[in-house]
Amino acid sequence: MTRALRTAHIGAILTFALAGLLCGTFTIRIPALSDGLGLSEGAIGSVLLAWGLGALVTMQSMRRVMTRAGSRAVLRIGGPLCAVALVPLAFAPGLPWLLASAALFGLAFGAVDVAMNAQGSSVERAVGRPLMNGMHAGWCVGAISAGLLGTLAIATGLPYPVHLALTAALVLPLMVVVGRTHLPDGPRGAGRRVARAARRMPPVVYLLGVIAFCAFMIEGTVADWNGLFLRDVVGASAAMAALGYPTFEAGMLAGRLSGDRLRTRMGDRGLLFASGLGTAATFTVVILAPAPLAALGGMFLVGLCVATISPMALSLAGTSGAAPAPAIAQTGAMGYAGLLLGPVLIGFVSGHASLRVAMFAAVLLGLVIAVTARFLPAGRTAPAPPVGALPEPSLSR
């Protein structure tokens, strides 16, 4: 790997980490937002829905935007804007402003999410070997850092508006600096050819979208419901229940740090099939755990198994034969639809049956991933430009 490619690789990892820090900071202070504005659980659900819908809207529009502008240009604008968009959330005086601010933050984040995955795919193709899982490990580091810094802020009594504003002030210049490391997006004059490719989505992109949908749905289920499950169903203390999500993220981090090596050894279909079955099996362990400690250990294993699925789906979309950025945008949009639907489905089923029964949805999703993986093209994928895509860009700025 040349020095320029190594710099682009590090820049992509840092972009994932900074995005994880922004989103994690917003998530960790939701209870403080609720208390500060006197919001009900339903109102907080509306705020999260506004954020998710904003991200989904941007992702759906990114097919055309990425075709014209490219990932580097989107990240250089969208990264700083995503940091700035955290500030209105900090100083929202009431629910209407909070809903608008959450939607704005979602819009900015949706652009960054698609663009950083497209940039990651560009780095993979330039280097010629799997790297996406390691980049997504950066997200885990950012999310875990947000949790640790949030805990420190709460312990020291730092008001949440100050916490969010300081985080934005820290991330903004870093996004600007990291934006200088990204790969350019190919020569000018190829726009029509790429635009035609963007309109032709092969069926495999939608298969990958199904896999991403299931993986994101599982991650959303853990993020939003694991604490209540551990406390109310398994009988964990409030302190132990609070460890559920960090434990899951630690498992995700471990899985993603080893995921690229496993992908090289097992191949795409093999690793996705094993990850889907492993997710189903380990989530069953969590649901049937006889004691809180066993359930907590199961959460780590769930994170370990599910970790590689969404990064691989996005990476494979970039080498599917379609124009990489629009294909990643399509797969990402389908994935985020699962992230939005998952918590709603769990809440609906738990209201009509029980939370333990509802959590079996994640087991079924793991099995769907394993079955869908068998329909993907056989063989091992070494990231390379798909047929009809742009030639590799020059590294000059």
Task: Describe the structure in your own words.
The protein is mainly α and about 400 residues long. Helices cover about 80% and strands about 0% of the residues. It folds into two domains: about 1-185, MFS general substrate transporter like domains (Growth Hormone, Chain: A, Up-down Bundle), CATH 1.20.1250; about 200-380, Growth Hormone, Chain: A. It has 18 helices and no strands. The radius of gyration is 20 Å and the shape is globular. The model is unreliable at about 185-190 and about 385-395 (pLDDT under 50).
Describe how the helices and strands are arranged.
Elements: H1 3-28, H2 30-37, H3 41-69, H4 71-84, H5 86-90, H6 95-127, H7 132-155, H8 160-178, H9 191-199, H10 203-233, H11 238-242, H12 244-266, H13 268-287, H14 292-306, H15 309-317, H16 324-352, H17 355-358, H18 360-373
Helix pairs in contact: 1-6, 1-7, 1-8, 3-6, 3-9, 3-16, 4-6, 4-8, 6-16, 7-12, 10-14, 10-15, 10-16, 10-18, 12-13, 12-14, 13-14, 13-18, 15-16
Average pLDDT, rounded to a whole number, is 85
CATH topology group of the largest domain: Growth Hormone, Chain: A
Low-confidence stretches: 187-191, 385-397
What percent of the residues sit in helical stretches (DSSP H or I)?
A: over 70%
Main traits of this protein?
disordered C terminus; globular; Growth Hormone, Chain: A; mainly alpha; 18 helices; 397 residues
Quick structural gist:
The protein has helices spanning 3-28, 30-37, 41-69, 71-84, 86-90, 95-127, 132-155, 160-178, 191-199, 203-233, 238-242, 244-266, 268-287, 292-306, 309-317, 324-352, 355-358, 360-373.
